[in-house]
């Protein structure tokens, strides 16, 4: 139940928001008039992003948040509780590609590192802020997945990019998304996986086709779904910014 004044701004948390798609999502939500907590594992990078937004007249709140560090996650959740009292939108955006190693060349250490951020970090952050999301009357969770996590697309395709750790971490994230959607459906909390399309960022050496602003469109749309919107779904953006269901 939303115990806050109806007039209060919506409150959002975006992880890994100091650059790339996360920064563009934070900017887009700010432009919608929301209070946005901009999560950054390195607070100096977060402070620089907050300053860049401030130069455009946008007032984000930087929060130190390393999704692999439980103490950092708990401190961020406490800060949001103190400052805002509730959370309406969680965008689990932080994600890493450690290498492009194919399965036979992948170390367990790399697999663990990738999952710590891309999978376990999402569960840790979601559970930490769930009490705050439950205080909202319209809570939404968006998990940034990838077409590379789709088993339906990969199966039988020898040319499918073979990076084991990243691809399988996003497949696991899809399973996590469905599990939370099922648990939270009765409470009206919508949980969806969004592949932003191929976006030019540091993650791919800026080889992506879309700008970060374009890549942020679908995550923002899914973060602002009306009541009764989809939950437990996955969507992806095409090069022309068209939106399609993403096959699991
Ligand atoms: N770019 C694409 O085409 C594409 C396609 C499909 C899916 N995605 C997904 O979209 C999301 C954003 O990707 P991007 O392309 O914007 O990548 P990016 O430019 O590399 O940005 C990744 C962000 O995640 C942060 N991060 C990494 N590890 C973290 C941790 N342990 N705790 C908190 N933050 C952490 C990074 O912080 P630092 O600056 O400190 O490293 C950075 O802010 C990822 O989940 C990615 O897998 C991207």
TrEMBL record:
Keywords: NADP, Oxidoreductase. Residues 229-248 are annotated as: Disordered. One of its GO terms (molecular function) is oxidoreductase activity, acting on the CH-OH group of donors, NAD or NADP as acceptor. It comes from the Bacteria. Belongs to the short-chain dehydrogenases/reductases (SDR) family. This is SDR family oxidoreductase. It comes from Kribbella capetownensis.
């Amino acid at each position: 139940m939303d115990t806050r004044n109806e007039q209060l701004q919506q409150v959002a948390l975006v992880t890994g928001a100091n650059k790339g798609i996360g920064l563009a999502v934070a900017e887009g939500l700010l432009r919608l008039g929301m209070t946005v907590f901009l999560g950054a594992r390195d607070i100096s990078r977060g402070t620089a992003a907050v300053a860049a937004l401030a130069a455009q007249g946008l007032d984000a709140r930087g929060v130190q948040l390393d999704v692999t560090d439980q103490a950092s996650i708990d401190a961020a959740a406490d800060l949001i509780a103190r400052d805002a009292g509730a959370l309406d939108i969680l965008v689990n955006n932080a994600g890493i590609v450690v290498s492009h190693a194919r399965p036979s060349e992948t170390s367990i250490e790399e697999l663990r590192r990738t999952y710590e951020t891309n999978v376990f970090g999402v569960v840790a952050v979601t559970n930490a802020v769930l009490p705050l999301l439950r205080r909202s009357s319209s809570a939404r969770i968006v998990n940034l997945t990838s077409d590379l996590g789709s088993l339906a697309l990969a199966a039988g395709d020898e040319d499918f990019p073979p990076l084991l750790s990243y691809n399988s971490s996003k497949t696991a994230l899809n399973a996590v998304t469905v599990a939370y959607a099922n648990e939270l459906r009765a409470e009206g909390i919508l949980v969806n996986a969004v592949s932003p399309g191929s976006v030019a960022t540091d993650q791919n050496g800026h080889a992506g086709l879309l700008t970060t602003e374009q890549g942020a469109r679908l995550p923002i749309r899914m973060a602002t779904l009306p009541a009764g919107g989809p939950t437990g779904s996955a969507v992806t953006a095409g090069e022309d910014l068209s939106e399609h269901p993403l096959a699991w």
